[in-house]
Design brief:
The complex is a heterodimer of chains A (about 200) and B (about 230).
Chain A (H helix, E strand, L loop, with lengths): L4 H9 L7 H10 L12 H9 L22 E5 L7 H10 L5 E5 H6 L21 E3 L6 H16 L24 E2 L4 E2 L15
Chain B lengths: L3 H11 L6 E3 L9 E4 L4 H10 L5 E10 L2 E17 L2 E17 L2 E10 L4 E9 L8 E3 L8 H11 L3 E3 L36 H15 L13
Parallel strand pairs in B: 2-7, 8-9
Antiparallel strand pairs in B: 1-2, 3-6, 4-5, 6-7
The chains are: A alpha/beta (about 200), B alpha/beta (about 230).
């Protein structure tokens, strides 16, 4: 049961701190999102710049880049996902512990970008794993990555612990492992995970 | 800098029966190249490195020459029987006939050589396979210039030229299970044109063809790509 904002302030003036488990839980999770340390292409350079002194991702609690998927909460797909690399990306995502989030950074990661018609480039990583935030740009500036990070924090803040809208890691029925595509004779097999991605309808 | 004619003469003096051909470049730059006979290529390349001090291979790439149909107009004179005023006469007549012939294609490997010692270069060296289907072997120049190793692997990957004598001939960019050679002119890319929100030109045509193929077997169902 949520506490009214006005009542909370009034109680705070009297030295009484009131909160809910949900608020505390989400506050804790959103304030220490540890990204996984891996870059795929030139967007990774912007990701590195975001963590350095000028942009300082540490202000948002995201400076702890972990070299292991077991310790990471966030996967930043920073760059072109080639069809040769895609199975490894999905496998790394499967190895991450819940709750886990994905930011698809840049034109290539969200759609294939300038290489969309190439024979070797995946047309967006959202064909195989669920993506929480997409950032356009080629490459996106560090401000854009920070914006995506804050968007993700807002999303985490809005999650409820119970109910049908609860996040995947609190849903025992939810799918936890995503099938890793196989490198076939002509293309990846299957070409997308229908549980995650269906062909979007373009409205004109 | 020696001219290609001088280099050709030097090769022919050093390697008997080398069969080196000059491929002229008609452009202003005039960078003519040498086409080597694959059977003598290793001997010629060794001579280029040791005899003419071409000690650095900077670049190796492939070219696909598909089968080319050439139509030529040929004037043919033949005797025909004509009926003029009810009388049959033999007359000669000249007509133009279009004759078609197919020039067989091949795969080509191109190497750019420099001489760091003499500050010379580039020298362009080419080799051609017998055809594009089953006789696609060329001798590897990796034993002579080590820098050719990855580039010959890339040519093998993307064009399908098999380099005999290469120490480690595996695909470089695509995965090992991949069967096609994407840089060949007749490569057919997989039909993954299901979602093309900003399609134009060729992509638009491919996307339309994809939707038609999707709609044909199950025409009663809603088209997932509707509205594109």
């Amino acid at each position: 049961m949520a506490v009214e904002e006005g009542l909370k302030i009034e109680l705070g003036k009297q030295g009484v701190f009131v909160t809910t488990i949900e608020e505390l839980y989400n506050w804790g999770r959103r304030s220490s999102i540890w990204p996984m340390q891996f870059g795929l292409a030139c967007c990774a350079i912007e990701m590195i710049a975001t963590t350095m002194a000028r942009y300082d991702l540490a202000r948002f609690g995201g400076e702890v880049f972990r070299p292991s998927p077991r310790q990471a909460d966030l996967m930043i797909i920073s760059g072109t996902v080639t069809k040769k690399m895609a199975p490894q990306v999905v496998r790394l995502y499967n190895q991450m512990a819940e709750p886990r989030y994905v930011i698809a950074m840049g034109a290539c990661a969200i759609s294939g970008g300038p290489f969309k018609q190439g024979y070797n480039v995946l047309k967006g990583i959202d064909r195989y794993i669920p993506v929480d935030v997409h950032i356009p740009g080629c490459p996106p500036r560090p401000e854009a990555l920070i914006q995506a990070f804050m968007t993700l924090q807002k999303k985490i803040d809005g999650q409820h612990l119970t109910g049908p809208e609860r996040p995947r890691h609190l849903d025992a029925e939810a799918q936890g492992e995503f099938p890793v595509p196989v490198q076939g004779e002509h293309d990846l097999e299957p070409t997308s995970n229908p549980g995650v991605w269906t062909v979007p309808v373009v409205i004109r | 800098m020696k001219t290609v004619e001088e280099i050709k003469a030097a090769i022919e003096a050093a390697v008997p029966g080398a069969g080196v051909e000059i491929v002229p470049n008609p452009s202003v730059s005039g960078q003519h190249s040498l086409r080597l006979e694959p059977s003598h290529a290793v001997a010629v390349a060794t001579f280029l490195r040791d005899g003419l001090a071409f000690d650095y291979l900077s670049n190796a790439t492939g070219v696909d020459w598909p089968d080319k149909e050439i139509a030529e107009k040929v004037k043919v004179t033949r005797t025909v029987t004509k009926t003029v005023d009810g009388v049959e006469q033999a007359a000669e007549e000249t007509i133009e006939e279009i004759r078609k012939r197919v020039e067989p294609g091949c795969l080509e490997a191109v190497y750019h050589l420099y001489s760091v010692a003499l500050k010379e270069g580039p020298l362009t060296v080419r080799m051609r396979t017998a055809n594009r289907t089953d006789q696609v072997e060329l001798p590897s120049l990796t034993p002579i210039w080590r820098s050719a190793e990855f580039q010959e692997r890339e040519i093998f990957d993307l064009f399908g030229i098999v380099f005999t004598g290469h120490p480690d001939l595996r695909r470089l960019l695509m995965w090992d299970e991949f069967k096609d050679h994407p840089m060949r002119r007749d490569y057919v890319e997989p039909d993954d044109f299901e979602y093309e929100p900003t399609a134009h030109d060729q992509v638009l045509a491919r996307a339309a063809a994809h939707r038609a193929a999707q709609a044909a077997p199950d025409s009663g169902q809603e088209g997932t790509g509707a509205g594109q």
